[in-house]
Specification:
alpha+beta; globular; five-stranded mixed beta sheet; 138 residues; single chain
């Protein structure tokens, strides 16, 4: 089982799909920006391991009109980057399953992008064998 740098198992496990990982390492061609964006997402994922949904804004935000989907948010001079995920459980382990990423090109993401992210996150949860979802209160 993974552990935090404090030697204890994380309260939450963050799982990235292969597609999400591939997107993250290629989300921009600017190498300096890529380093900043990857570092920022890494920090958010570390916070998620400790606090889950209590991380809150501006790092994560629950999306309205979705089936429990959230976005991890990074703002950089090169743009706004988003990674989409849901919270769930695998047995007694609490998880965040991250399965899609996107660089925003306008103020709000089109509904088609949100719907695609929802399908990918749901499929990744099924692949992980997640047997239920929890909301931010658990």
């Amino acid at each position: 089982m993974p552990s935090t740098k404090f030697g204890r198992p994380p309260a939450w496990e963050v799982h990235l799909s292969t597609e999400a990982r591939d997107w993250l390492i290629s989300c921009t061609t600017d190498q300096a920006a890529l380093a900043r964006v990857m570092s920022s997402f890494s920090f958010i994922f570390q916070k998620l391991e400790i606090a889950g949904p209590r991380v809150g804004e501006p790092e994560i935000k629950k999306l309205v009109a979705t089936q429990g989907m959230w976005e991890a948010r990074v703002k950089d001079p090169t743009g706004a980057y988003r990674m989409f995920f849901r919270f769930g459980r695998i047995g007694d382990r609490r998880i965040a399953a991250v399965a899609h990423g996107r660089k925003k090109s306008r103020q709000s993401l089109p509904r088609s992008v949100i719907d695609l992210a929802q399908r990918k996150v749901d499929a990744f949860l099924a692949e992980l064998g997640a047997n239920g979802f929890i909301d931010q209160e658990q």
